[in-house]
Amino acid sequence: MLPLILASASPRRRELLERIGVALEVQPADLDETPLGGELPRAYVARIARAKALAIARPAGRWVLAADTTVTIDGAILGKAETAGEAADMLRRLSGRTHQVLTGFVLVGDRDGDPCIHEGLVASDVAMIELDAATLADYVASSDWRGKAGAYALQGIAAALVREVHGSVTNVIGLPLAEVVEALRALGAPGPAFTRGTAA
After folding, report:
1. pTM above the 0.85 mark?
2. Can you list the residues of the chain whose pLDDT is less than 70?
3. Three-state DSSP class for residue 43
4. Of 99, 147, 166, 182, which one has the greatest count of Cβ atoms within 10 A?
5. CA–CA separation, 110 vs 41, rounded Å?
């Protein structure tokens, strides 16, 4: 079976899929990911994931996977901070509270000879510790927040800032593996071959 086309430049999504032996061809989708005015977080990740999937010129017989992840609290979308000040503001908002990480994912391909679009959305609840001024300053100075929705990444040093996760852990990292693999298998798309996976 031909490799799955991953419409994402995220090294985390690529690593998660390759770890379980999914054969990939990476073709990042380049598009404007700015939220629309008044757009709700769930609608936002669903729209961006679908746009990424459809932006890839898909050869016949190939499957494309796209995803978008965001952090949300109080109905707000917390994207990637551009400055240390923005990162600190986001983390103060998350400090001592539970927020949600949402990932919308879309699979586009051919099923039984007919075009098929499958859409999924997964939410995980993440409880963050109370951040004192020194911890916040040290973390922001580390620059680990750069390029991360909500200004943190569970797979980085910010793991020490997270008290607990309810729901998919891999979703918080960037791709809900169990749900994506379930969809790949149900659709007959290229899925995991654990013998091709790498050791953790």
Report:
1. yes
2. 195-200
3. helix
4. 99
5. 29
**Residue 68 is among the residues annotated as catalytic for this protein:** yes
36: β partners: none
The catalytically annotated residue of 30, 68, 74, 110 is 68
pLDDT in tens, 115-139: 899 999 999 999 999 999 999 999 9
By three-state DSSP, how is residue 100 classified? strand
Domains (range + CATH), the chain = 4-196 (3.90.950.10)
**Sign of the Cα pseudo-torsion (182, 49, 47, 118, in order):** negative
Measure the CA–CA gap between 182 and 179, rounded to whole angstroms.
Answer: 5
Helix/strand/coil percent split, the chain, to 5: 35, 30, 40
Which phi and psi angles does 135 have, rounded to 5°? -65, -45
